[in-house]
Amino acid sequence: MATVHETLEASTRKNTILKSHDRYNESGAPLCDAFVIGIAGGSASGKTHVAHEIVRQLGAIPSVVIMSQDSFYKWNSPEQIALAFANEKDFDHPDSLDLDLFAKCLRDLKRNRQTNVPVYSFSLHQRLDETQYLYGAAIIIVEGILALHDSELRNLYDLKLFVQCDSDLMLARRIRRDVAERGRDVNGVIDQYLRFVKPSFDNFVQPSSRYADVILPPKENMEGINLVVEYIRRKLAERSSNLRERMALTERLLSHTSTPVPASSVKYDTSIESMQRAAEGLGVQLLPQTPQVRGIYTLLRDEKCSKEDFIFYADRLATILVEKAMEALPFEKSETTTPVEERVVGQRLAAKEVCGVTIIRWGGPLERGLQRVLRDIPLGSLLIQPEPNTSEPLLMHCMLPACVRERHRAEEAWVIVLGSQIGTGSTAFMTIRILLDHGVREDRIIFLTFLIARVGGIAVVRRAFPKVRIITGAVDNEVKEIWRMDGGGEGVKGQGKGRKDWKIEPGLGDIESRYF
């Protein structure tokens, strides 16, 4: 018998998620829902092949989820499991599927929310307790024999496909698949096909083809797939917003003028009073500029600072930032008994769910400070990287704590986000939007950062998410446009491969590289 790990691996193979990208405008609202494609057809007609071929041809498009109908079979009783092992249970009738849950999961994904898709084991003939977490698709491909049968599902599709295939070919493919992948014998597969699969195809599957926008032929269907792919590309092009570059030019966004005010033309001093005025105007919370804090920043800005000293003082500064963040968390009265048996009234943390989310590398230098102050805090991570050609943020990896992945818990959770600096603000913007998509309340997000630029995207972030608390230790002058070479370092556009980027000046340099 297959192990639980092997069962999970096999049963989630059809549900595939690739990378995601930012689909929001500067106000924080989604530009549009995800684009949903429904693919139906008979059993073993090639639906999964068509779905994966679409993904393959999309190539650099980094935001596709394939969601399979097979995940949504209902829980089976012991009696139903016995019938399934005897090949006497009908898995092809609409009643065998939890269509309400199917529609709910798809609706959440379409609306840019996370969902937890059930996992079904064909070798055990049972839905497992585990679920598969999915989030962040710009394109969702739904495939299943009954994908076009249910009206509620059809209403969620933007494009409906039906894969036509000869019955003999479908039977041959089904025998090969069920024997190789699901441990069935040939006689059982044929008996089940004649008793359940063929009648269901005639009564439910084939009739649903009338709802399809495109019917793909059984063979040589690449031309139809090519047309579908080009259609998807056009839809993605319509939603492109170039958000990062626009956030770097904050004045254009906020004033809606045709020509932004160059950051270099705005002069600031670096005095405590200047930083305090800037922080107040931007709506961010600035650490008290004590001699200790000012001294730490002086050491961190020094290019001659040793790696050991940089790590030590960065950890110290991170601890101070987290201690400041604790003031935003709810506390309640608590009685305790001292070692000399005296009762005293104190305070204890009242928040039931507190977790941290670090933006990989970018937030790494703050992790140790968080764990020093909040021991054993659940810590999740996001990997957000610039798209090679446009520098737009891409969500490459998403591993959030359980209290955020589960929506009913996310609504009660407090989340401390770790990011070393906010320049253009696009990564911070996307991180906050991801948490909101999961149901975290805006006023329960606390963003900690060593440094922000007063001329940059921070004003856009504050306008879009005014209830988010942003705590920083320093406010610097500007965000400067540079040309980032592919091999690392700065260069000149046209003199080697690279991309447009931005950096904070005077700044702390590449904080992550200096720390790690």
Description:
It is a single chain. The protein is 37% helix and 24% strand. The protein is an alpha/beta fold and 516 residues long. It folds into 2 domains: 4-238, P-loop containing nucleotide triphosphate hydrolases (Rossmann fold); 283-515, Rossmann fold (3-Layer(aba) Sandwich). Residues 1-20 and 251-266 have low confidence and may be disordered.
Topology at a glance:
Elements (H helix, E strand, L loop, with lengths): L3 H8 L4 E2 L2 E2 L13 E7 L5 H12 L5 E5 L9 H8 L13 H12 L4 E7 L4 E9 L4 E5 L7 H4 L4 E5 L3 H15 L4 H20 L8 E3 L5 H17 L4 H6 L1 H6 L16 H11 L2 E2 L4 H11 L5 H20 L4 E7 L5 E7 L3 E7 L7 H7 L5 E8 L6 E7 L2 H4 L1 H4 L2 E6 L2 E2 L3 H12 L7 E5 L1 E5 L2 H7 L4 E4 L2 E11 L4 E2 L6 E8 L5 H5 L1
Parallel strand pairs: 3-7, 3-8, 4-7, 8-9, 10-20, 13-14, 13-16, 16-18, 17-19, 18-20, 19-21
Antiparallel strand pairs: 1-4, 2-15, 5-6, 11-12, 14-15, 21-22, 21-23
Catalytic activity: cytidine + ATP = CMP + ADP + H(+); uridine + ATP = UMP + ADP + H(+)
Protein name: Uridine kinase
Organism: Serendipita indica (strain DSM 11827)
